[in-house]
Write a structure and sequence with these properties.
14% strand; alpha/beta
């Protein structure tokens, strides 16, 4: 019996209407200055609880006041363009009406977290990489959202499990969760996969519960 559902954020419950890629632009700026970034550098963006300006400072990227303002403006435009997919709110409401606890688990840079929380005021459980210091598919991020939701998981529950998760990454939202006992599903909004929208997914989970 499924009692809790976890959603990924971008590509799953929300989309970016105006993609400006400010963090990519920031790293390009650093490379032009001769800085050599490692995977740890990009990891910092997603796991350091840092503002955009603090990331630039931590990575020792020098920005003129005008360039700093330009990149922050680009970030603001991207944040302002974030919106739920048309099926998201209906699917979440359907699952909540069926008695399930809802969580959102995502790899995010710090400025994106408040936007996600504001978009879904009735979702109280979150696991964001910048707050936890770990990224999907690290087991710790899945365990954190389950603790937040007050549900227990175990490897023996991976197929029937009380917790399910869905997202657009096979590695992070299907396979990673399964490693800790969460039943993971892959969402393919192109229509080429088994699940192409969240209403289909919500009805699938509710039907599973009814079947007992």
């Amino acid at each position: 019996m499924t009692s809790a559902v976890v959603f990924d954020a971008f590509g799953t419950v929300v989309r970016i209407g105006q993609r400006t890629n400010p963090y990519s632009a920031l790293l390009r700026e650093g490379r032009r200055q001769g800085l050599a970034f490692t995977p740890d550098s990009t990891h910092l963006v997603m796991t350091g609880n840092l503002s955009f300006d603090q990331v630039a400072d931590q990575l020792r990227i020098e920005l003129s006041p005008s360039r700093r303002a330009e990149l922050n403006d680009a970030l603001g435009k991207e944040l302002a363009s974030i919106e739920p997919y048309p099926d998201t709110l209906e699917a979440i409401a359907l699952l909540q009406e069926a008695g399930m606890v809802i969580g959102i688990c995502s790899n995010l840079a710090q400025p994106f977290g408040p936007v996600i929380r504001k978009a879904f005021p009735h979702v109280q459980c979150h696991a964001f990489s910048y707050e936890l210091g770990v990224m999907k598919p690290d087991p710790g991020i899945y365990l954190a959202v389950c603790r937040d939701m007050g549900v227990k998981i175990g490897h023996s529950d991976a197929e029937k499990g009380s917790v399910v998760m869905i997202g657009d990454s096979r590695k992070c939202d299907r396979d990673g969760p399964r490693g800790v006992g969460i039943k993971g599903y892959h969402l393919d909004r192109s229509g080429l996969g088994q699940i192409s929208n969240l209403m289909q997914f919500a009805n699938l989970i509710i039907d599973y519960n009814r079947a007992g």
